[in-house]
Description:
The chain is mainly beta. Helices cover 7% and strands 45% of the residues. It has three helices and 13 strands, in the order βααββββββαββββββ. It has helices spanning 23-28, 34-37, 100-103, and strands at 17-22, 44-46, 60-62, 65-66, 71-73, 76-77, 89-96, 110-116, 124-132, 136-146, 152-164, 167-183, 191-194. It has a five-stranded mixed sheet with strand order 1-7-8-5-6. Strands 9-10-11-12-13 form a five-stranded antiparallel sheet, with no helix packed on it. A three-stranded antiparallel sheet has the order 2-3-4, with no helix packed on it. The model has no long low-confidence stretch (mean pLDDT 85).
Amino acid sequence: xxxxxxFTKPVLDTPQTISVIKEQVIEEQNATTLQxxxxxxxxxxxxxxxxxxxxxxxNIFMRGFDASGSIFxxxxxxxxxxxxxTFNIEQIEVLKGASGSEYxxxxxxxxxxxxxxxxxxxxAGEARVSAGSASNKRATLDLNRAFSETGALRLNLMAQDxxxxxxxxxxxxGYGLAPSVxxxxxxxxxxxxxxxx
Length: 197
């Protein structure tokens, strides 16, 4: 199911090529970046420095056209020049072809929408720790708490300090913080405020 309310029909009945990469698939494959998660979608190519493009950001080409300027976060254009982490991503929605009616001006190739994790009306928590070759160390935490019948808080944290296999002086090091609060869950009027750093 797509996260945007602009899509009034199920994905099966929408006359457009749409792929939804769910959180379960991202976790099962341990895809920590948007580039790794997009390997699940045919027709999407990630460039790593070719044609003068930087390899320090998500260089996405779809169907042969540059789509790196058509990445959205909860339906809002995300023009950040960075490699996007998946620690706070609920699902990734890939729309191929013209999608101006959904998100506004974009590339002819299509768009990629990242749907972030939002609070839910339950108490849940999940912690993940991984270690591997090339000094790979990563930890994530996902906490959700309901504080009333219609309100909830959610906190997602990530810390990573890894090397790169086969490269001596290259590191993937960083942290992520994503708190969010929601009011009016389960009612016709909802307010959700979130921050990602």
